[in-house]
Amino acid sequence: MSARAAWRLASLGFKQVYRYRGGKADWLAYGLPVEGAEAGDPRAGDLARLDVPTCRLSDSIDQIQARLEGSGWDTCVVVNDEQVVLGLIRAEALDENSWRTAEEIMEPAPRTYRLSKSLDEVARYLDQQGTDSVLVTNPEGKLFGLLMRNDLEQARAELEKKRSSRQ
Fold first, then answer.
1. Measured distance CA(111)–CA(136) in Å, rounded
2. Which of 53, 58, 122, 154 has the lowest CB atom count within 10 Å?
3. Which domain holds residue 87?
């Protein structure tokens, strides 16, 4: 429909008309601005914590432990030079074998969600998996942040309160 809309706008005299070939789903997945009834509702990208520590495949356990120490985090996201998510390391996976690398101990290909995913959808996943966080990435798989269950639950409660007050 974007091609039709672009042509229609041009036929109405608009001079600077651009067609976003990725489509609506792609636009939303990048967390770009939207309008409409749900425009103000928070999405996964709105709540993701951006300061989650990262490491490389070749980083040693000692390096990862040093990065986590004092950071307030118990998770390190394994990324490549382009920030594409390759794996996830939780503190409990770190052991005394400091010669091992992130590649050897990481959870490969962890589940990720796009910035545009609804809080309800992410909550269902967290409940099903019994986990407290999920990675948020853009459509190229580049790390955006980590969404924590407690942040999600707080936002859902606030959203429910907001919706109730509208009725």
1. 9
2. 58
3. 41-166
Which residues partner with 89 through β-bridges?
Answer: 76
What global pTM score does this model have? 0.81
Q: Are residue 86 and residue 157 in the same domain, yes or no?
A: yes
Per-residue tokens: 74: 């118990």
77 shares its domain with 137 = yes
Among 79, 72, 50, 54, CA closest to 64? 54
User: Does 120 lie in the same domain as 72?
Assistant: yes
Quick one: 135 exposed, middle or buried, by C-beta within 10 A (0-12, 13-18, 19+)? buried
Strand partners, 92: none
| β-bridge pairing 143-148 and 54-55 | unpaired
50's CB contacts (< 8 A; 6+ apart) are 144, 145
Are the CB atoms for 146 and 41 separated by under 8 Å? no
pLDDT, tens digit, for every residue of 77-107?
999 999 999 999 998 888 776 788 999 999 9
